[in-house]
Amino acid sequence: MSKPLKVALIGAKGQLGSDIASHFSQCDRYQLTALTRDDIDITNPEKVQQVLTSQKFDVVINSAAYVRVDDCEQEFNTAFNVNAIAALNVARACRDLDALCVYISTDYVFRGDRHVPYTESDVPDPINIYGTSKLTGEYLVRQTAKRSLILRISSVFGKAGASGKGGNFVETMLKKAKAGDSIKVVNDIFMSPTYTYDVARLLGELLQTDPTGIVHGANTGSCSWYEFATQVLKIAKIDHPIEAIPASEFPTKATRPMNSALISDRIAQLTTFKMRPWQDAIAAYIQNR
């Protein structure tokens, strides 16, 4: 058996990070060091260097991010500090370590004004501060680290919830339905729902191939947020009405891409692992929650 890869995971308590930590810690191919905000302040370049160069890591996964999309419009300094400058700090440490730098990015790097999903080769063109800060992070990581993997995901849901958002979309729909609350969901914004556990499994397989470049790691298929919500209640066997509304009736501070669905041309080239359809991912999440 080959020597396990030494992996540092930044953001280990986040919605995605917690699933990566759980999966990698059970896999003998990896020796994981899980780092939380208390362990490493990625906005502090000296601290990043100190923590990451203390061991000879083979891979550094940066899953930390400022993900409050609407708040990013006003708090753009925080958005860029965390999503871009801090990503640069991590990439510099990876360069010094000669480690693979894995940066978790988003579908929001795309404009979303077309009717087909975005592949890895499509040109980004973000329309809000969050997407712009993440795309800047992508560029800085790719230009700085000797080897980098940009893993874009979309509309994530996982057992840990999103610390900055107070849960996830699936839990919100279940909670509202069980409480008998009125539910209105937009039906003209489309994306690819993504189960963080599946992303963790994908990443575990990808790292065995020493991957570089950009990979889209969403569950397969796409839907509107209304279809997402309807499928959640259907799988949970909850009979509760959901009203479909246009995005114009649900104004937000940040402009959302109308169709930021992702598809991957690269996963099949790199691994035999396949991301399952978003409907199956929801079913697995609800069964295991």
Architecture overview:
With 289 residues, the chain is an alpha/beta fold. It has a domain at 5-160 and 194-220 and 261-275: Rossmann fold (3-Layer(aba) Sandwich). It has 10 helices and 12 strands. The strands form 4 sheets. Strands 2-1-3-4-5-10 form a 6-stranded parallel beta sheet, with helices on both faces. The protein has a two-stranded parallel sheet with strand order 6-9. A two-stranded parallel sheet has the order 7-12. Strand 4 (100-106), helix 5 (129-144) and strand 5 form a beta-alpha-beta unit. Helix 2 packs parallel to helix 4.
Question: What is this structure, in a nutshell?
Answer:
By secondary structure, the protein is of the alpha/beta class. The protein has helices spanning 15-25, 45-52, 69-72, 76-97, 129-144, 169-179, 196-206, 225-235, 267-270, 278-288; strands at 5-10, 30-35, 59-62, 100-106, 147-153, 156-157, 184-186, 190-191, 194-195, 213-216, 223-224, 243-245. It contains ten helices and twelve strands.
